[in-house]
Design goal:
single chain; eight-stranded mixed sheet; 39% helix; binds (3R)-3-hydroxy-3-methyl-5-(phosphonooxy)pentanoic acid
Length: 317
């Protein structure tokens, strides 16, 4: 028996970083997915196979190991170990991962993979509710990224366009607009954990200034929620640019990102970093009138591709 689940990546339209300090973020899941396929194996091992690498561990050794460069797989081993333990199952599990979400560039691959693996592994025993999947996926992700706000995990699990706050959870934003975005990759590798740490240090050294930026972000989020409901792309594009200014002020932009944004703004409604920054990706807001021109323009200097909102979130296949 195989248990298959898939979960989408995401983009953050507004509010990254500030969401970690009590603000809200606006984000949506995107039509690029990670699929996890789990099945029991006779040997008492957890086996992970993916394009980024494979690993195989004895169940008894999982909690004792130093994972080295397969550290990103640590949450998957814990998810499998916990499920086997909870159900008193005396077998092992093989998990095969297939991904359309490029890793480590701010598109939420680490959260999406945790969501897909939790659903797929537990589906071997009993399908979990989306709420329970999200809870376990956040616990698993916190093994390697303790500070995560949980935004990526919730949007990957529930899908669609939403506001998210650490204290208020998520609220769906209903819009008639099936947003079109172009993602462009700066090709600068980034570590979300490291950038989040740098921003925390920046905040500690600039307490009042950071507070002012949080207030500005808050205003942007309020206006953006309104503009999304009204489907006002011009206003949204301007708000994205304002949000990018704030991200620049907390020093998570880079020269390469600034260049991509400058180019993207020539043809799109607006552009900004998505995710932690310090590299990773930008998003540009477009519609059918300027999508092709934006891709044509950006593809001369970066890997880029269009994405749309995914409304399904976690799917059991
Ligand atoms: O780079 P990503 O996709 O992991 O996004 C990080 C967003 C942050 O706000 C910086 C962190 C978080 O957990 O919300």
């Amino acid at each position: 028996m195989k248990s298959i689940a898939s979960a989408p990546g995401k983009v953050i339209l507004f509010g990254e970083h500030f969401v970690l300090y009590g603000g809200k973020a606006i984000l949506c899941s995107i039509n690029k997915r990670i699929v996890a396929t789990s099945q029991f194996v006779d040997k008492k091992k957890v086996i992970i196979r993916s394009a980024l690498g494979s690993a195989e561990l004895d169940i008894q050794s999982i909690s004792k190991l130093n994972f080295g460069n397969t550290k990103f797989m640590k949450p998957f081993f814990y998810i499998a170990e916990r499920a086997l333990d909870e159900h008193g199952e005396n077998k092992g599990i093989e998990i095969v991962l297939k991904s359309e979400v490029p890793a480590g560039i701010g598109l939420g691959s680490s959260s999406a993979v945790c969501v897909a693996v939790v659903a797929s592994v537990n589906g071997l025993f009993k399908k979990l509710s989306k709420q329970e999947v999200a809870k376990r996926a956040i616990e698993a992700e916190r093994i390697i990224f303790k500070e995560t706000s949980g935004a990526d995990t919730f949007v990957s699990t529930f899908g669609g366009l939403m506001t998210y706050g650490i204290n208020d959870g998520f609220h769906e934003i209903s819009t008639n607009n099936d947003l079109d975005l172009v993602v462009a990759n700066s090709s600068q590798a980034h570590s979300t954990r490291e950038i989040v740490r740098q921003v925390r240090t920046f905040r500690e050294k600039n307490v009042e200034f950071f507070d002012q930026l949080c207030k500005q972000e808050n205003d942007i989020i309020k206006e953006a929620s309104y503009s999304l409901k009204k489907n006002d792309l011009n206003a949204l594009g301007l708000l994205m640019s304002k949000n990018q200014d704030l991200l620049q002020q907390i020093k998570v932009s880079t020269k390469q990102i600034d260049l991509l944004i400058k180019e993207a703004r020539k043809t799109s409604y607006g552009a900004k970093i998505t995710g932690a920054g310090g590299g990773g990706c930008i998003i540009s807001l477009v519609d059918e009138s300027n999508l092709a021109a934006t891709v044509d323009n950006l593809k001369n200097i970066a890997d880029c591709f269009p994405v749309k909102i995914d409304y399904e979130g976690l799917l059991y296949v």
